[in-house]
């Protein structure tokens, strides 16, 4: 059975994810293939509106609460993701569960008064709520240093997590996730180059999947089930 491919684009803040997701959408549409772009957090839902207020520093929440809200935001779309894939539609997803883990786990790493080993926001705790979500067929990590992102991207620092120390820690956790997922499912793209060069590399990795993927939609971290 052939189904749509599930492509996730991840990266630090201002790494070019949304730009490249939009360009990839255009390329797949130009190939006359069914495709849909999703973005997380989905700020249009009731849960997403709470997240949006938090990210814009208009409200405060306990770290555990906001992490679970991010996960709930993905779960409320999970059945739609699976249905679209099974219908033959390719999905491009701008951020997914990996961002949730990377950002929340990084909070513990920058708490000098609380060693990571004693914090409830451990990597394993942060991963647990997203176990068994639909698994991507390919995750593209757009890698750029926080310093370069701050220099090159307009509007840097406008949202809560756009701080150089935080972004550096997030990058470390993303590296751990990539190692865990493995080279077949996780590809690192140098996002410090021109948009055209990055787009070319992304298309090289995605184009073989555009015709469809064989087999059922897998569960994320199904080895932990």
UniProtKB/TrEMBL annotation:
InterPro entries: P-loop_NTPase (IPR027417), Thymidylate_kin-like_dom (IPR039430), Thymidylate_kin_CS (IPR018095), Thymidylate_kinase (IPR018094). Signal peptide: none annotated. GO terms for biological process: dTDP biosynthetic process; dTTP biosynthetic process; dUDP biosynthetic process. One of its GO terms (molecular function) is dTMP kinase activity. Residues 9-202 form the Thymidylate kinase-like domain. Pfam families: Thymidylate_kin. Transmembrane segments: none annotated. PANTHER family: THYMIDYLATE KINASE (PTHR10344). This is Thymidylate kinase.
């Amino acid at each position: 059975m052939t189904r749509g491919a599930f492509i996730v684009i991840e990266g630090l803040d201002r790494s070019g994810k949304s730009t490249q997701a939009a360009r990839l959408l255009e390329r797949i549409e130009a190939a006359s293939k069914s495709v849909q772009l999703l973005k997380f957090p989905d700020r249009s839902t009731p849960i997403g509106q709470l997240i949006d207020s938090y990210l814009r520093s208009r409200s405060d929440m306990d770290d555990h609460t906001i992490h679970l809200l991010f996960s709930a935001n993905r779960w409320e779309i999970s059945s739609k993701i699976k249905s679209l894939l099974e219908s033959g539609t390719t999905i491009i997803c701008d951020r997914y569960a990996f961002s949730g883990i990377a950002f929340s786990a990084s909070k513990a790493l920058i708490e000098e008064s609380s060693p990571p080993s004693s914090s409830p926001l451990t990597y394993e705790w942060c991963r647990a709520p997203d176990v068994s979500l639909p698994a991507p067929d390919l995750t593209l990590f757009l890698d750029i240093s926080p310093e370069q992102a701050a220099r090159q991207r307009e509007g840097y620092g406008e949202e809560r997590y756009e701080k150089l120390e935080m972004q550096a820690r997030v990058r470390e956790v993303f590296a751990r996730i990539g190692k865990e997922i493995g080279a077949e499912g996780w590809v690192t793209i140098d996002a410090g180059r021109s948009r055209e060069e990055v787009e070319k590399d992304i298309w090289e990795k995605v184009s073989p999947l555009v015709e469809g993927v064989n087999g059922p939609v897998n569960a994320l971290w199904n080895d932990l089930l």
